[in-house]
């Protein structure tokens, strides 16, 4: 879209067809894009992208961002695989994928019993969206993995290019648990990129240093190709000064790694998983859905330009 962002009525400018761009016109166009998926085809990346969504702080929006970004990309034409690497199984729930104990899952993949393709299920959110679910069996994996051969790279081995070619996916998102244990290390070794969701709250930056140090350790010893490519600010509450302070602090520190789109705090976003949906299908016209689609579009545009960071 060619319209200038953040227009105010005072600086509304004529659009190419003679209409005037106003904030309402801009919002209406965004809503149209979400409500009519066929109106927007997102560009394919120059190469398959594997992103680990990590932050050892709990409840910052890792799972919400994983499923909604994945749905945004998939609904608009890209093939996406979500790997639920959290024994809580929240991503599986949000994508309406069966994850009762005993279901073929990422646990069996990690212990080498089945392949990624055997465990991947198509989500009802989009035919382009696969999910490898997590069952409660994964809770024991953190300990079981300790004594296994190549314990840090078991997910990487499972995500080999033949397996991913079989599914034909453009994007892989790995949803991590809120810890820096072996499951998260496996995710960091298997990916080229880390996406860090940061909540626009007071303690948001606490613990980030520890995450970045762990990423550096993985870079140094296990996966030199790894980089923090994307930071997404979540749960932004425009009524508080604090949200703006956190936003500018994060932008000041991480620059263009931070997506321009900020995800607002929105009841619709938090309600959607209760209906086994992403917000993009639960309430496509909501601010939460539009923001996640905008963020997905930014990610897709960076990927299509062959530059993961801006
Ligand atoms: N933009 C938002 N607006 C309102 N609520 C949100 C938003 N994003 C996430 N939430 C809610 O915040 C809670 C935590 O989000 P989420 O589960 O995505 O975080 P997480 O980092 O994956 O948590 P965990 O560390 O437990 O895995 C959930 O109840 C979710 O519905
Ligand atoms: Mg989670």
From TrEMBL:
<dbReference type="InterPro" id="IPR027417">
    <property type="entry name" value="P-loop_NTPase"/>
</dbReference>
<feature type="domain" description="AAA">
    <location>
        <begin position="49"/>
        <end position="227"/>
    </location>
</feature>
<dbReference type="InterPro" id="IPR050678">
    <property type="entry name" value="DNA_Partitioning_ATPase"/>
</dbReference>
<dbReference type="Pfam" id="PF13614">
    <property type="entry name" value="AAA_31"/>
</dbReference>
<dbReference type="InterPro" id="IPR025669">
    <property type="entry name" value="AAA_dom"/>
</dbReference>
<protein>
    <submittedName>
        <fullName>ParA family protein</fullName>
    </submittedName>
</protein>
<dbReference type="InterPro" id="IPR022357">
    <property type="entry name" value="MIP_CS"/>
</dbReference>
<comment type="similarity">
    <text>Belongs to the ParA family.</text>
</comment>
<comment type="function">
    <text>May play a role in septum formation.</text>
</comment>
């Amino acid at each position: 879209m060619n319209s200038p962002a953040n227009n105010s009525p005072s600086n509304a400018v004529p659009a190419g067809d003679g209409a005037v761009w106003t904030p309402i016109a801009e919002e209406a166009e965004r809503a149209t894009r979400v409500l009519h998926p066929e109106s927007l085809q997102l560009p394919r990346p120059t190469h398959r992208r594997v992103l680990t969504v990590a932050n050892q702080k709990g409840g910052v929006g890792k799972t919400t961002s994983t499923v909604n970004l994945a749905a945004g990309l998939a609904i608009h034409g890209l093939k996406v695989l979500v790997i639920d690497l959290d024994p809580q199984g929240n991503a599986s729930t949000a994508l309406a994928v069966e994850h009762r104990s005993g279901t073929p899952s990422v646990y069996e993949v990690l212990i080498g019993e089945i392949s990624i393709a055997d465990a991947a299920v198509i989500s009802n959110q989009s035919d382009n969206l696969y999910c490898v679910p997590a069952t409660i069996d994964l809770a024991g994996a953190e300990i079981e993995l300790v004594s296994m051969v190549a314990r840090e790279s078991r997910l990487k081995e499972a995500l080999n290019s033949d397996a991913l070619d079989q599914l034909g996916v453009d994007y892989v998102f790995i949803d991590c648990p809120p810890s820096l244990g072996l499951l998260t290390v496996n995710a960091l070794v298997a990916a080229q990129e880390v996406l860090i969701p940061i909540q626009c709250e007071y303690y948001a930056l606490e613990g980030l240093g520890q995450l970045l140090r762990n990423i550096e350790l993985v870079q140094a010893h296990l996966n030199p190709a790894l980089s923090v490519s994307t930071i997404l600010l979540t749960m932004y509450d425009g009524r508080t000064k604090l949200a703006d302070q956190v936003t500018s602090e994060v932008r000041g520190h991480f620059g263009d790694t931070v997506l321009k789109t900020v995800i607002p705090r929105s009841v619709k976003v938090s309600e959607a998983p209760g209906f086994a949906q992403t917000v993009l299908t639960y309430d496509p016209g909501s601010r939460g859905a539009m923001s996640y689609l905008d963020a997905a579009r930014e990610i897709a545009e960076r990927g299509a330009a062959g530059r993961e960071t801006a």
